[in-house]
## 1
Amino acid sequence: MFTLPEIRSALETPAIAEETTTSESLDLPWNVIVHNDPVNLMSYVTMVFQRVFGYPREKAEMHMLEVHRKGRSILWTGVKERGELFVQQLHGYLLLATIERTQ
Amino acid sequence: MEVFRRNGSLEITEIDPFLAELLRQIPPSTNPESIPAAEQRLFTSPAAPAEKELCAEWKLYVEPELRRHFQSATEVVSDDLRQLDQDEKSLANATLCIPHEHADAWLNTLNQARLAIAAKFDFTEAELSDHYHSPIGSRRDLSLFQVNFYGFLQEFILREMECSPPSSPNE
């Protein structure tokens, strides 16, 4: 049993058993990014986006044009393991793709 | 040269000796081993260098798998190209049939070849957009023509595939 002064003291100055920090790398999602490459055909890149991500043609074309005009496009955001698999598939089609931590 | 679809195959007809030679050059053009720039382009890093662990694991486990995948596609194309193994006189009327189920392998191999050649010669975006560049001149001119010719074939195959899309190569 705790005495009333002990309880009061604990409430006023709670003891910290151990300070812990959350690893951001575990929590933050990752981006799958495709970078521009003038050799890859626009129609080919669109087809790859449709196949790898299952995007409808319009969405795949929008990302393809973003890659073409801005140099890169974030195709997908989520857990690292799934992102790595997407990057592997994109490399299988010879697209310039990377996985990056979100800021 | 004419390209069209017949009985579930893609057909390239009336291939003259020059274009036949360009087609035969597809598989050897994919080999980047003697060209560091091509090797670098075909096997790029999956992340920034700061992601050391990820990059190291990729090199160890994923890159060999990608090499096998590319090699397997190239072998399919090499087999199809045996149709062109005739004496030079008959090549004027040569026909190349690409079975529909080989379309993915062709797309991949053509892309390997285009990327490797473009990396080797460091073609600019302006050069790559010049689709009417004459192949007559330097080795560079011929290689640029080669990249554009292979791109034309890719476009054709892609258009034909839209009719009945095949499965993903990594599935």
## 2
Amino acid sequence: MYSSQFPRDLFAEVERLQREMQQALDPVSPSIRGFARGYPALNVGSTPTSVEVYAFAPGIDPAKIEVKLERGVLTIEGERAPVARPADGKTTLHINERFEGRFSRVLSLPDDIDPSAVDATYRDGVLRVSVQRRGSAQPRRIEVQ
Amino acid sequence: MSTQGRTQTQAPEKDARAEPALLPPVDVIEDATGITLYADLPGVPKDRLNLRVDGETLLIDAEIVLAVPQGMQASHAEVQRTRYRRAFTLSRELDPEKVAAELNHGVLRLRIPKAAHAQPRRIEVQVG
């Protein structure tokens, strides 16, 4: 992995480790495939009416990102071109940390989602996939007679 | 090559303490006329990107802005900070006055030209 993961600030690092341990113990982790770190990084959140997935995928042509939802499994796939550099042999690549190549991330969504109400937008290098939850699954207040 | 390793990362003490930040991955390419730096800053709009050249230090400081629906509860987060920060030490032959920057789809592209006197010149050899 790249050098950004090497300790720089000891206190921040300890804090990060603590958070990671907490996260590893967290029983609501999405799935065994979605948990692994990779490209793009994923943040997932939910509201009573929707599930929101944020994929941090900078520098990609939005038309070339493939978002699929099949049987409750969301797949985000695409390809990122290597950094542009003239092939005349007169350039030097000093640092090369950015991801390049094909990527695919898979995430299990909750059972109550509505596969027909999916909305994906790409802005500032972040792909946001918003999936509506079925009305019946939304908490309802039941009047007591 | 004498140009190897001229850009090195440095986290200035005062900034490192300020607020924990993510270290964005970068690519740095050098050619005869200058250096091009690409940094991944997903989620950063143009108005939240702050680039500063302070002496020989180039500082990238940026803030992530996500459209989050009201009342959203996070269930899984791989990006746990809302700020990117990274500093580089420029070398003397680079011209900090002429740094050009563009931000496109969350990728920052910085072009730092070499000062005119540092650009390669072909020296004619006179045959006497």
